[in-house]
Amino acid sequence: MSARLRQRKTTMEKHQLGKSGPQVSALGLGCMGMSGMYGPSDRAESIATIHAALDAGINLLDTGDFYGMGHNEMLIGEAIKGLKRDDLLLSVKFGALRDPAGAWLGYDARPAAIRNFAAYSLQRLGVDHIDIYRPARLDPNVPIEDQIGAMADLVKAGYIRHIGLSEVGADTIRRAAAVHPIVDLQIEYSLISRGIEDKILPTCRELGIGITAYGVLSRGLISGHWQKDSARKGDFRAMSPRFQAGNVEKNLELVEAIQEIAETKGASVAQIAIGWVAAQGKEIVPVIGARRRDRLTEALGALSVKLSETDTAAIECAIPKDAAAGGRYPEAQLTHLDSEK
């Protein structure tokens, strides 16, 4: 398998992730949906999708140790077994706690917990180092300086190569960067989730920190494929405010608004949405959540869609900032997000 992938891999544009990070492909692959977060998934198709992404030149695979309670890391470990390690960048989030039934119990980013989480991730992935390691959320009970310090020790020991952050605000970013270089912030960014533009994105640009943007299709809502009754059993989108009755209809009207623009560019709605995020700057890497090869192929097509300033202006006119109905997370979760403060 590894020889086949090396022979078929094509060239994709790469650029440095932040001022101190590795060379990363123009798109990353987010693997969360392959482990049940969006309802049942097919293991064989998931692995085939990972291989197809690598074949296409994507080198960034993003996961979390709590996706499927370790399932996602083991899936990736199986998919990359035998591949040349230097061709891959593994981005891992840690800290979220879950019980045997899958309920969320909070976050733990104590230094001892960080070392424990890292040890288990290395084992499940079957690798000797993690390329980018990041707390999934800010643990309010542990100073960010202590969290970054613990990860810095793992860097010195060779277990992780780079430190990233996820869903934190500008003040936390500055405090973290004062302890150790931060290569990127992973945060939601899309046509209907543009909150980072006020303070967070300018801070990252000032400090030379990259952005790995998840939710570029707002979990499928602005993909052009979503219908208001698409959520299946076990799909957490069924509880998301933007997918609720009364909101989802208004949000799908926004999708219709950019359909005409997509047609003039000979592109799909999803490709326009991904292309818009990519057009915001080379320091921003859209992380696509494809879990099937056909969706991956469509997303890759976004790289061929060239958006002019006139195009982006038309897109932003069709979907004005703050046009979405409903929050990106339930209110109870938003109140705990450092990035929302």
UniProtKB/TrEMBL annotation:
<protein>
    <submittedName>
        <fullName>Aldo/keto reductase</fullName>
    </submittedName>
</protein>
<dbReference type="InterPro" id="IPR050791">
    <property type="entry name" value="Aldo-Keto_reductase"/>
</dbReference>
<dbReference type="InterPro" id="IPR036812">
    <property type="entry name" value="NAD(P)_OxRdtase_dom_sf"/>
</dbReference>
<dbReference type="InterPro" id="IPR023210">
    <property type="entry name" value="NADP_OxRdtase_dom"/>
</dbReference>
<dbReference type="Pfam" id="PF00248">
    <property type="entry name" value="Aldo_ket_red"/>
</dbReference>
<keyword id="KW-0560">Oxidoreductase</keyword>
<feature type="region of interest" description="Disordered">
    <location>
        <begin position="1"/>
        <end position="21"/>
    </location>
</feature>
<dbReference type="GO" id="GO:0016491">
    <property type="term" value="F:oxidoreductase activity"/>
</dbReference>
<feature type="domain" description="NADP-dependent oxidoreductase">
    <location>
        <begin position="27"/>
        <end position="316"/>
    </location>
</feature>
<dbReference type="GO" id="GO:0005737">
    <property type="term" value="C:cytoplasm"/>
</dbReference>
